[in-house]
Each structure stands twice: as C-alpha cells, then as structure tokens.
Design goal:
Elements lengths: L1 H48 L18 E4 L5 E5 L3 E2 L10 H11 L11 H14 L9 H10 L6 H17 L2 H11 L6 E2 L1 H9 L8 H10 L3 H4 L5 H17 L5 H9 L16 H15 L9 E4 L3 H21 L7 E2 L7 H10 L7 E8 L5 E5 L3 E5 L10 E3 L2 E2 L14 E7 L5 E4 L5 E7 L6 E5 L11 H4 L9 H9 L8 E4 L4 E3 L4 E3 L10 E4 H6 L3 H11 L1 H8 L24 H13 L9 E5 L5 E4 L3 E2 L2 H4 L14 H8 L4 H4 L3 E2 L6 H17 L14 E6 L5 E8 L2 E8 L12 H16 L14 E7 L13 E7 L30
Parallel strand pairs: 1-5, 3-4, 22-23
Antiparallel strand pairs: 1-2, 5-20, 6-12, 7-8, 7-12, 8-9, 10-11, 12-13, 14-15, 14-26, 16-19, 17-18, 20-21, 24-25, 25-26, 27-28
Length: 836
C-alpha cells in the first residue's frame, strides 16, 4: 500500500510538473508571439509613417514667431508689434525651478526618465478610459505635445498619434531633456495671444518670468490643457480648479510642502489682462520703424523677433508728447467749448449702460470720458468715470468753457457751471498736475513736433499728432504744409551769398507783381498790414517783414536762390520757382524743416535724419548698426587739401587728409560734407538769435537761455503755425494746423500757437544742459554802422549799431545823410539809391 501510494504521488507530481512546464512553455510562446507581433506592428507602423515624418533636427531651423520690439536709445520699450506675443527664453537655466516643476506636475511627471513615450502613462490612461467607457485621460508626453505643435495637426486619429509618438522618440534622440523643456516652454500657446510661458506671465500677471510665484506658475501650467477655457481671464473658475489640481500634484510629487501648498492654494487668482510693458509712448515713430524694416527685410519682421534700438531719447520723447498735447488743448480752449458729446438719463440708466456709454466715448491723448451725475450748488459737478470712479469737477476746471461759435468768434464767458453742463452730459476731462480734474474736449486741430541732433541727424523725439490711435496720419513726415516765414532764414542765407549784408537796407514798401502764375496781380503784405520803409536786413528777419524778403529774392533772382537753398536739403515741392518762395509758399514737412534747420544749427554741414540706431534678432545677431555722417569741425581745423569728393570721406581718407591724430576721434565715422560756408551760416544764426532776443520769438526768453535761435512761421490766412529753432545740440520744429487746411482763426500765428509748444518741449529737453556758444569763424569782421543807412558810422554818428560782415563786404564809406522817408504824400513808394 505504501509503495503504491508513493508511486501514485510521484506520478501526480510528475504529471503536474509536466503540465506546468507545458503551460509555461505555451505562455512563453504566446508572450513571445505577442512581443514579436507587437514589434512587427510597431515596425510596420514606423515604416508606414516614416515617409511622412520630418527630420527632428529641423526643429532647430524652425523659428518661433516672436514680435518686433522697438526700444529707445536708453533701453525703454516703445512698442511690441506682432500677432503672437512671445518672449524667448534662451536657456533652460533661466526658468525658475518651481515653474518647470509646475509643468511636470500638470503634464508629464516622468519627463526626465521616459524616452519620449511614457509607457506607464499610456497603460494608465488606457485602463481609465476603458473603465470610463470614453476618452477621459490622455497620455501625451511633453515631447509628444512639442512634436504635435511643431509638425502635426490636432486631429484625433490613430495615424496622427502614431506619427506623434515616433516624432517624439526622434526628438529625444536629437535633443537633451533640458533643450526639449526649453523648446516646450517657449512654444506652447497659453491663450490671449500669449505664446510661451514668459509671455503668458506678462499677459496674465504683468510679471517677468523670474518673478512668478508658485501659485502663478501652477495657474499657467493648468492653462495648457484648454487655453481658451482655463486661462484666468476668460475662465477664472475653471482656472482656479485647474490650479488646485496642479498644486496638489506638485505636493504629492514632493515639489512643494504642505505649507507651500496651502499658501499657493489661498493666493488670490489674477484675472486681469496686462499689455506689453510699454515704457514710453512713441507710436508714430514705432510705425516708421515697422515700415522701414518691411522695406529692408520683408513682411515677416513682426514674427522673427527683431529688436530695434532707435535714436529716440525717452526724456525728450515724453516732453514732446506733453508739449503737443498741452499746446493743442490750450489752442482748443481759446476757441470755446463745443458742448457735451452726448447725454443720458442718469436717473434711469443702469450701471451696465453707464459703463458702456463711457466705453463708447473712451478718451484719447490722456483724456478720460465722464458722465455728469449731478450739478452742485457750490458751482462744482459730480462725475462718474469708467470703473465706477467718482470725482468732483471744480468750477476752476470749467470756467474756461466759453461757447464756441466759429473759428473767429466765441460767446460770453460763463458765470456758473450750469451754463456749461447738465446732469447726464457725457464729456471729456483731464487730470491736472494738482490731482484734480478739468473739463476738456478732443482738439480738432492737429500738431506735430520733431527734434533731432544737428551733428548727425539722429531723431531724438517725434510726435506726429494729438493721438495716434484716433489718427495714424504722421504729420511729421506726411503733412506737406506751407512753412510761411519759418522758411525765411534760407532766403536770407541766399541773399548773403549773393551780395547782401546784414546792414543792407531794403525798402519795406508795397510790391506788385503781374503774372499769369499769380492769376493776375500779386500784392504781398506784412502780417500787420503796415509798411515800414527802409529796413536793415537784420531787422527784416527779426520783425519777419514779408516785403523785405520778397524784394531781396527779386534782387538776387529765383534761379540763384533755388540753387543755394537746395543745399539745405529741400526738394522741389518746397521750392516754387517764383517770388512766393520768399514767403514759404512751398510744401514742406516738419522733418524737411528740421533737416534744413540742422544745417543752420551745425554751421553749414549736411546731415541726414535717421531714427534706427541698431537692428538685431532675438538671438542677439546684429543685422545693422547706424553709421551716419557726422559733423567734424575739428577736421577743418587742420590745414590739409580739400578732398575731391568729401561726401565719400571715410576714416581712412580722413586720417590721410587730416592726420593720424584724428583717427581715434573719428572711429569709423563718415564725415558730413560742408555745403555752405561757416561765415554765411554764422551770420544767419546771429540774426535768428535776435529773433528770440527781441523779435517774433521773444516769448522763448522765458527759458532764460542765451544759446537759442529760431523763427516763427505763419502761412496765408493762418492755416499753418510754425516755430523752428535750435541751439548747437538740438533742433526742434513744431507745427499746428488743421488736416483739412482750414484757417486756425484770428490771431493764431506762429508766435502764439506753435511757439508755446516749442518752449514747453525745449524747457524739458534742455533741462540741466549747459549753455552753448556759437564760436565766430574766421573771416568775419565787426564794424560800427548807421542804424538808419547801414553805412559805416561816422565819428560823430550817435545813432549806430555794431554789425558783423564777411571780410571784404563791410562798408567803407561813411553815410553822412540820414535817409528821407521813402514815401511821398501820396503814400506811394519812391526809389532811393542803395535801397532795394
């Protein structure tokens, strides 16, 4: 029995072992078959997908869209231009650790260990989706998402997923994990036009990447799953839930502790959009930059990350913005209040209706829309501004508002606020320097200001209108207007080059021209309507006498004048070939005038205005650096032969001509050519300083500087008001007028309308700058002349002035007889010897 039982037991053991062995072999065979089948499927899928797979290395060559950014010379951001807002982060080390951890927790916690495809994640997602009966969880790694966004579409298909997986594997072979993470965090879309985590941080939180806290990093990581729904602006509740999930994952993974988790969970959720961190308003200049770059580099300049450093000085640009705005508002006030923009019933209007009305009339140029909620007995008004801001409008901010009738007339000054405003009125207001508010209105007139360095043409400030976003017409470069008397200095320079001296006496008397060009008779007159008789040339410009300019031009001849004035850089539109040229009847932009005045300011050298100092790409590659022609008066101090082609003078030839000692001073600079004699220009400068000391520009004396020179200008019927002026370091030109070419109104002339803008600008632009001198060049002499005749003053002549002449042109004959009146009893002009 014992032996039989033992035998049966042994047989059963053998049978069980044989069965288990057979089962194991069968299982191993099935597993092997499955592995082989799987491998075959993967192999087949790879060869099926391979023809359509791009080379992963091409990721290096696919540029991310980065907007064009425009900066001032001192590094302040002026404008960001582009559809996609992206701030490239060039190195993985620049990402804060908690930012990287947030994205790992939200999207792919095994990123640094898997080969591009997370097999555990795939299995986990498959199980959850099977149990749920639908697709509840994805398994795409960060690398797969990157592959999809670079090369594929978002269509849901197995073919796309297969391609995505293989591409992810290829990317992992080509790039390090740190490089892949950097590409991912720069590439992905976060909603609200923000691409890349650095731009998203700025858009949603107004912060630089390095300033993001854990809660903000978790919020951004949560956005990626559904940028339109989960961003904190359009979906704050979903964003908060998603942030809580990401923070929980960060805690579970050990990235943050319980205390950090609690603090981040309780942190207030930001739900406000932030624009680009614009540090200075110069939109007219920014558009000039964009157009210039499109012409040079093509239309993709707003996607390739161009970084442009301009010649703009931020302090001067800010001064220009305020000067033009305040000058136009002041002009507008003089011509009366045109009434409320609209009116609503504040008693029945809902908060939503009030806010919508305020939005409909959003202000421009610093103005804010407001609704009058109540008129008070103390002659003030209660206003409501956007965002339910309540302010008090005092009578001192309203009492300017005389009724507008037309450009030449206004009504009676109001005595109480209810003569101006009524409850429900929609108006504009402006905040004053004291923090209170004043009634305002959008000016109908426009203005422009441009300032440049006369020594190389660098534009330091440019404002092309009251507000770019209500009118993109850039009047600095597009408005060709009549410069009026501000053009006269060029006529005077031509006269000096053609035999006149500052002591020449010109008869300021009626002048009549009959010609088909004038459609009959042309009778120029002075702005005062009076005639002043024999006038020394210096006083003719100081007092801006039109007849003096016309008679001088008639004497020297149109052809000679045009030939001379072209040296200031003016084109044909500014130079009509008739006597109206003497009164600035051509068409010139403010930039044309600034360019011409630069020759006057720098002593006779031609410089070309420019506004781009440096262009580089996002990776730092420099595409261009400006090398403008620069004034080099030191070069002329060395006695060397003149070059045949001074326009082409460079550092090498300059060193040859002017000595090696100048090489270090010049660097690689191009030397600006001299186009007019220093003596000629100095004499014109000297008269223009008199314009400010005692002439039509004397309001500028408020600046308490003795180095300023300039000229007022007013065109026919007060359609254009100008002031152009300079010191040796800065030229500034201001213009005020209507785009429609309507008259500005009675009394609106250069000295009243444009000069205050220039003064406002120059006060700030030259603040702290030392007084500059105008060194008198060799070849000039100063003698005593009769203030009446301009002849050499006699020993007993008490009525004399000192006048400066080019050597050889000074008077040598004493004039003993005082000129009689140039008018007879009839009032008609009579001819006098030596009077033009």
């Amino acid at each position: 029995m014992h032996n039989t039982a033992s035998t049966d037991k042994d047989m059963n053991t053998a049978l069980n072992t044989k069965f288990l062995l057979r089962t194991a072999i069968r299982g191993l065979t099935l597993a092997t078959v499955a592995v082989i089948a799987g491998a075959a499927a993967v192999f087949a899928a790879y060869h099926y997908a391979k023809p359509g797979l791009p080379d992963a290395a091409t990721v290096r060559d696919i540029p991310l869209q980065v907007p064009l950014r425009v900066y001032t010379r001192d590094g302040k951001l002026i404008q960001e231009i582009g559809e996609q807002r992206r701030i490239l982060v060039n190195s993985f080390d620049e990402f804060p650790e908690h930012v990287v951890q947030a994205f790992l927790a939200a999207e792919d916690d095994r990123f640094f260990t898997h080969p591009g495809i997370d097999y555990q994640g795939v299995l986990r997602a498959a199980i959850k989706n099977t149990l749920a009966g639908s697709r509840k969880q994805g398994a795409s790694t960060l690398t797969q998402q990157l592959a999809r966004d670079y090369f594929l579409t978002r269509e849901r298909s197995y073919i796309r997923k297969i391609k995505e997986a293989f591409l992810a594997w290829k990317i992992e072979q080509e790039f390090s994990k740190q490089e892949i993470m950097t590409l991912f965090l720069n590439k992905m879309f976060f909603g609200q036009r923000a691409y890349g985590v650095a731009a998203a941080g700025q858009v949603y939180f107004g912060k630089e990447l390095g300033d993001l806290n854990v809660a903000e990093a978790a919020t951004l990581a949560g956005v990626l799953q559904a940028p339109s729904a989960y961003n904190p602006v359009s979906g704050p509740d979903q964003a908060r839930d998603r942030r809580r999930y990401v923070l929980g994952r960060m805690r579970d993974l050990g990235f943050i502790n319980q205390q950090q988790w609690q603090g981040a969970t309780d942190y207030p959720l930001q739900s406000k959009l932030h624009g680009a961190d614009i540090e200075l308003s110069a939109p007219y200049l920014a558009e000039m930059v964009r157009l210039e770059l499109v012409n040079k580099y093509g239309r993709d300049i707003t996607t390739r990350g161009y970084r442009v450093t301009t010649t703009i000085d931020s302090r001067m640009q800010q001064a220009a913005n305020f000067a033009v705005r305040d000058g136009l508002l002041e002009y507008d006030r003089r011509h009366g209040f045109r009434g409320a923009l609209a009116s609503i019933d504040v008693a029945t209007a809902t908060d939503a209706q009030i806010e919508q009305t305020l939005a409909d009339y959003s202000g421009a140029g610093g103005l804010k829309s407001a609704i009058v909620m109540a008129i008070n007995e103390n002659n003030s008004a209660d206003l409501r501004l956007a965002g339910d801001l309540r302010v008090r409008l005092p009578w001192s901010g309203v009492n300017w508002a005389v009724p507008f009738i037309d450009r030449r007339r206004v009504g009676n000054k109001p005595e109480s606020i209810d003569e101006v405003l009524t409850a429900g009125d929609v108006v504009y207001v402006i905040e004053t320097v004291t923090g209170s508010y004043a009634l305002a209105q959008l000016p109908e007139a426009q203005g422009a200001l441009v300032a440049l360095d006369p020594n190389d043409g660098a534009i330091a400030a440019l404002t092309g209108g009251f507000d770019y976003y209500t009118s993109k017409f850039n009047r600095v470069i597009q408005a060709e207007r009549q410069p009026g008397s501000s053009f006269k200095p060029f006529i005077y320079s031509a006269a000096l080059a053609n035999g006149f001296t500052l002591a020449s006496v010109i008869n300021d008397a009626p002048f009549v021209v009959s010609s088909r060009d004038y459609e009959g008779e042309w009778r120029p007159k002075n702005s005062t309507g009076k005639f002043y008789g024999p006038t020394r040339m210096r006083n003719g410009l100081v007092r801006s006498l039109n007849l003096v300019s016309v008679r001088m031009l008639d004497k020297i001849g149109i052809r000679s004048a045009l030939e001379h004035i072209r040296k200031f850089g003016f084109g044909d539109k500014a130079l009509p070939a008739d006597l109206s040229l003497a009164l600035g009847s051509g068409g010139a932009t403010p930039l044309d005038m600034a360019s011409g005045y630069a020759v006057l300011a720098n002593g006779g050298f031609q410089v070309t205005p420019y506004f781009i100092d440096r262009v580089e790409l996002a990776d730092g590659e420099v595409l261009e650096i400006a090398n403008p022609a620069r004034v080099c008066k030191r070069c002329e101090a060395v006695e060397q032969p003149e070059p045949d082609n001074i326009e082409a003078l460079n550092v090498t030839s300059a060193a040859t001509l002017y000595g090696e000692a100048l090489r270090e001073f010049l660097g690689d600079a191009v030397i600006a050519p001299r186009v007019l004699p220093a003596t000629n220009i100095w004499l014109v400068q000297d008269i223009m300083r008199d314009v400010i000391r005692r002439g039509t520009g004397r309001r500028a004396r408020v600046l308490n500087r003795n180095d300023l020179a300039g000229k007022t200008g007013t065109s026919n019927d007060q359609r254009d008001a100008w002031f152009a002026g300079f010191n040796p370091d800065l030229v500034a030109v201001t213009w005020v007028g209507f785009d429609s070419d309507e008259p500005l109104g009675a009394g609106e002339e250069g000295g009243r309308t444009a000069l205050p803008v220039w003064i406002h600008f120059m006060r700030d632009a030259l603040a702290g700058a030392p007084q500059r001198s105008y060194p008198q060049p060799s070849g000039l002499v100063t003698v005593r002349v009769s203030s009446k005749t301009g002849d050499l003053a006699g020993a007993n002549d008490r009525d004399f002035v000192f006048e400066t002449f080019e050597a050889g042109t000074e008077p040598t004959v004493t004039g003993d007889d005082i000129l009689a009146s140039p008018f007879g009893d009839s009032g008609e002009a009579v001819e006098l010897e030596n009077v033009f």
